[in-house]
């Protein structure tokens, strides 16, 4: 599910060079304008069916060349799920509060994925070209994930295809799209990241930010003990979401079987979610005042940040890992992203905004090491002619997307997929690979 500020809808963000005034201390209500719609649920885009190239005419005596399909032709990786795999926030490399151009790596067409490159196939799926699906090296990528998707398709204001076989006037579910795509491609690996929106994580973050902005340091109102938040993490709800994820994974297996694949011809990779913020002690802005949100875009009390890492994230990822076991397939692997951004998270000590670390832009030497890999939680900065979307909040930005791609390439393992946990290589001195990605390490599963 995706929520947004009550500002005029835009078919795509406009690239405008603008200088924002320093955040002045105003009545609290000013800071709350639009912040009730912080969205984490983010982005998948359906793709138009690709025409299979017809080989040149052969002598009449030659056997016809086989068309690409199960086990035949160029290998493909397909990604399914929600915003954490679709490419949401993949436009922005770090952040600046003074000039958006300093962090604008992909520009206003960042999420254009239709055949002509002129717009989105599904509005607000936000499938960026920096998304992890495109590992290269002779492997083709197809991104069917959608920002805001849950395990089941939603046909509300914005169509959000789930991992099911839905087909209607609004579009198709991701499992149906996978089945159709796999019939004419040699799909060797399907990567799934889903479940966060089933846990209502967007509304959880919304509650945490609102509680931070509306309570004083001497009487902190925490979100982790709000009944609306706690309800998402009861044993009953965790079991329910785990069951839904199992159903989604079963749908993936059914789609591949219907397309003509045996389990030995492809691998299912279940991908967990990364921690987007450090514990409270690792946040570089004080709890006092509004700087933590107005400057850093990370308006959480320390205890809520600690809870997010000690309880919320492990619970969500545990449900995914449990579902991977429950589905009972012999071709399942796991990519654990829990600590993939540690040291580069939003508001974390050791990294900062471009103006804080003294770098001109994302193209500056060392930018990948000194700036954040997770996008700010945005509120009033999305109003008017802003190039930002609320739904980009708290998602892997350009560096984060490329880091996950580097991890996934290691999982692909030259066509022999393996499981693993991903972390930053050379933490504190992160560097780019020759392909322009952060160098990551795939270690054993924790």
Automatic annotation (TrEMBL):
Superkingdom, taxonomy of origin: Bacteria
Composition-biased stretches (Basic residues): 13-23
Gene3D superfamilies noted in UniProt: SGNH hydrolase
Region (Disordered): 1-23
Low complexity bias: start-end ranges: 1-10
Coiled coil regions in record: none
InterPro entries referenced in this protein's UniProt entry, alphabetically: SEST-like, SGNH_hydro_sf
Protein name, UniProt field: GDSL-like Lipase/Acylhydrolase family protein
Native organism: Promicromonospora kroppenstedtii
